[in-house]
Design goal:
With about 325 residues, the protein is of the alpha/beta class. Helix content is about 40%, strand content about 15%. The strands form four sheets. The protein has a seven-stranded parallel β-sheet with strand order 3-2-1-4-5-6-11, sandwiched between helices. Strands 7-10 form a two-stranded parallel sheet. A two-stranded parallel sheet has the order 8-13. The chain is globular. About 50% of the residues are buried. The model has no long low-confidence stretch (mean pLDDT about 100). It binds NADP nicotinamide-adenine-dinucleotide phosphate and ligand G4F. The site of NADP nicotinamide-adenine-dinucleotide phosphate has 25 residues, from α1 and β5.
Length: about 325
């Protein structure tokens, strides 16, 4: 039974990845940071099957202890300060966790468990003000937020440890992926939750920022499969993971409200408070390397994703009301 360590197991991706690895008979260790209240909502249903250990990407010795005790075969480093707007308010913290945290984990691997295979959760935010359309592994980076800059550091240190120390360390450059478990502050979930609230009479409007931004949105459940495949490959390499399609925030609104029989224009209010100091206008992937080498392809399309998220929010809110 292989052992996998997931940092960020309480997040969206961590919960789907834990489910996937359990279905493949892994022993799953989840690293969680200490907080005064539990943040286990997404993994509540898995708690009997996974082992939860305290640790923090700020704290080198907690990572070393974890590796010493468990010697995992695979590490999925998903933990991060992952919300882009927060990275302008807390740039140093974002650099510490999302950037330097990767080095702390890689140092632990190098010193304690160098045979462990390491996955780094890199991001299409690194492409930022895009230099090429669509974006692929060789597209130059131009990050537009402290988050994007921190992820770029995490990406290159992962490549560097592979080249310097011969570690099996890979960087998955994942485009936006969403699900009913997405945090409420990210735009897709803000829209599906907001539309569901309006439909059920719990709200009258939804305030959003830039409706023209375009993203390559896929389903998180599909993307964790790509992470796993990267660590099963013969050689460590970096992969772009996305759908190859791009849609605007406006189109997402149109579909989500439309699915509930509403016209988004009657409810969505553009509020400049949600504009960003520097925007990423367009992201669209070329996932052909992942398709050719890993045999990976997304299973859920844009329509299916929006429908899944809207229906889950209607169901969840309906239950709460009842
Ligand atoms: P998420 O839902 O925001 O989850 C982030 C996780 O990181 C949470 O479990 C959080 O724990 C944990 N964390 C934060 N700071 C930590 C620290 N100092 N020490 C230990 N754990 C810490 O993010 P996600 O959407 O699942 O994304 C997973 C990873 O992929 C992130 O690195 C993200 O930047 C990256 N990524 C995401 C996307 C996407 O579209 N979702 C695309 C590309 C890359 P708490 O529960 O305690 O807050
Ligand atoms: O949903 P978002 O906040 O995601 P963003 O900034 O693209 O970042 C997500 O994807 C990255 C991968 O590319 C991850 F690395 C990162 O961790 C995170 O998961 O915003 C998407 C777009 C932006 O252009 C934003 O300006 O939606 C636009 N937007 C418009 N109104 C809004 C809003 N975003 C948010 N969060 N809230 C709004 O009201």
């Amino acid at each position: 039974m292989p052992t996998a360590l997931i940092t960020g197991i309480t997040g969206q991706d961590g919960s789907y990845l834990a489910e996937l690895l359990l279905s493949k008979n892994y022993k799953v260790i989840g690293m969680v940071r200490r907080s005064s209240t539990l943040t286990f909502e997404r993994i509540q249903h898995l708690q009997d099957d996974i082992e939860i250990i305290q640790g923090d990407l700020h704290d080198q010795s907690s990572l070393m202890d974890l590796l010493e005790q468990h010697k995992p075969d695979e590490i999925y480093n998903l933990a991060a300060q992952s919300f882009v707007p927060t990275s302008w308010n807390q740039p140093v913290l974002t650099g510490e966790v999302t950037g330097l945290g990767v080095t702390r984990m890689l140092e632990a691997v190098r010193l304690i468990s160098p045979k462990t295979r390491f996955y780094q959760a890199s991001s299409s935010e690194m492409f930022g003000k895009v230099r090429e359309v669509p974006q692929r592994e060789t597209t130059p980076f131009y990050p537009r937020s402290p988050y994007g800059v921190a992820k770029m550091y995490g990406h290159w240190i992962t490549v560097n440890y592979r080249e310097s120390y011969n570690l099996f360390s890979v960087s998955g450059i994942l485009f936006n992926h969403e699900s009913p478990r997405r945090g409420l502050e990210f735009v897709t979930r803000k829209i599906t939750y907001g539309a569901a609230r309006i439909k059920l009479g719990l709200a009258k409007e939804l305030r959003l920022g830039n409706l023209e931004a375009r993203r390559d949105w896929g389903f998180a459940g599909d993307y964790v499969e790509a992470m796993w495949r990267m660590l099963q490959a013969d050689q460590p390499d970096d992969f772009v993971v996305g759908t190859g399609e791009t849609h605007s925030v406006r189109e997402f609104c149109e579909k989500a409200f439309g699915h509930l029989g509403m016209d988004y224009e009657q409810y969505v209010v553009v509020d400049p408070r949600f504009y960003r100091p520097a925007e990423v206008d367009l992201l669209v992937s070329d996932p052909s390397h992942a398709k050719n080498v890993l045999g990976w392809q997304p299973q859920v399309n844009f329509e299916g994703l929006v429908r899944m998220m809207v229906e889950a929010d209607i169901k969840r809110l309906g239950k709460e009301i009842a």
